[in-house]
Every structure is written in C-alpha cells, then in structure tokens.
Amino acid sequence: MFGQIKMIFTVLLIAGIAGAGMYVMKLRSDNAILKANQSKLESAITEQNKVLEQQKEDFTAILESNKKLNVLINTFKKDLEDLDKRFTKKNRDIGKLAIDRTEAIERIINKGGKNAARCIELASGAEHTEAELKATLKSEINPECPSLANPNYVPYQ
Amino acid sequence: MYHINKIIALAIIILLTGCSIGEKKIKIFSIEKPREKLDYPMPTALELEELKWIIITSENAKEVFKKLEEAGIDPVLFGITDKDYQVLARNFAQIRQKLQETNNLLEEYKKYYEGPEENKQ
Description:
The structure holds two protein chains of two kinds. Chain A is mainly α. Chain A is built from five helices and no strands. In chain A, helix 2 crosses helix 3 (102-123). Chain A is rod-shaped and about 145 Å long. By secondary structure, chain B is mainly α. Chain B has helices at residues 2-17, 61-70, 82-114. At the A-B interface, helix 1, helix 2 and helix 3 of A face helix 1 and helix 3 of B.
C-alpha cells in the first residue's frame, strides 16, 4: 500500500518536473520570438526614421535648387531687358547712329559681339579668367552678361 | 522497479527537451546595393571663333568694298538691317540663356542624384 502511494507521488513529481521543464522551454521559445519581433520593430523604426530624415533633406535640396533656378531665370529676364535698353535708351536709333558715327559704332558692335561670344563660352561651361573674377567696376565687366561673366560685380544702385 | 520508473521519466524529459538545446537560429539580413553612378563628364565648353562686323552705309560703301579688294577678300558682304541686328543680338542672348539654363539643370540633377563632388568616390 505504502509502496503504491510512493510510486504515485514519484510519478506525479516526475510529471510535474517534466511539465515545468516543458513550460520553461515554451517560455524560452516565446521569449526568443518576442525578442526577434522587438528587434525587427526597432530596426523598422530606425529605417523609417532614416527615410523621414532623407525625405526632409531631399525637400530642402529641392527647395534650394528651385530657388537657385528661379534666381537664374529672373537674371535672364533682366539681361534681356538690359539688352533692349542698350538699343533703345533715350529713343536711341542704332541705324542713325551707325550712319553718323560709322567707325565708332563698328568698334562698339565688334566689342559687343566679342563679349557676347564670351558669354556663350561661359554658359557652355568655360572657366572664368582671373580678370573676369576680379572685375568689380562697371568698366571692367562684360556688359552682355555681367551676372554670368563677373560673379563678384555688384551693380550700382 | 522504482529505479526503472525514474530512468523512464528522465528519458522522457530528455526526449522532449533534447531538440531545443543548441538550436541554431536563421539570421535574415538584407544588403542594399546602390545603383551604379552614370558619372558622365560635363560637356566640353565651347571655344568660339572671332568674327568681324562691318558697317556699310550708302556713304562708305565704295570705300568698304575697295578696302576688301585691297585686302584680297571677295568684295561681297552678307548684310542685315539695324533692326535685324537687334533681333540677332536678342536671339543670341536667348540661345546663351537656354544653354546656361540647361547646364545648370544638368548640374542640379547631378548634385541631387549623385551628391556633391566631395562625396564622390
């Protein structure tokens, strides 16, 4: 009788230990899954933060680039207006002037043509000369495209 | 009998937990391979040849042609009026501006998609 009770207890004890062991194993496995999930979530958050930061940087770069191009387009308009003014300032008639002062106008036109050609070279990516970079006076600049040819020239007000 | 039970129970425990000891986990990772850079050099800058404008009026026409003949140049001129000269100047200014705008756009695209010069490998 006593032997049977002892055996039942032993079986129960062993079953208990086995159950506890299995439960611990299950907990360990759950823990591993949770850890993996957490690390995935953390890496996802880090990645999303990176993406957001990159987007922010991209927007700033786009805005800056747009601003730069707008400034450039406004400069173009001003350059064209200045060119028109040079031909028509104070009711100037370049044809009549050329009849009256042929040689002087020929000199001016040849100089203007040379300057305009230089502007095209610069617009196509040519390097500035030292003189062009140093020019700060109106007499030193290329009047056909001062903003392009002479970046250090500030027009008089 | 008592010992046999113990051994059987121990064997069952080992059998049930044995697979989980020393279990190897599969690691999953991804490596991002960036797209190759196009990296074209910027177009070569233009080098324009110089040309000479000659103004010809009814008064100096004979003198101009005489000078051309003396210099061994064919006495012929391709002319435009003063108004057309203004149009030509304006057209050239617009061509130059378009060239500058296109070059600028190209530089901005390059900078945006490939990063500034100092970041290049």
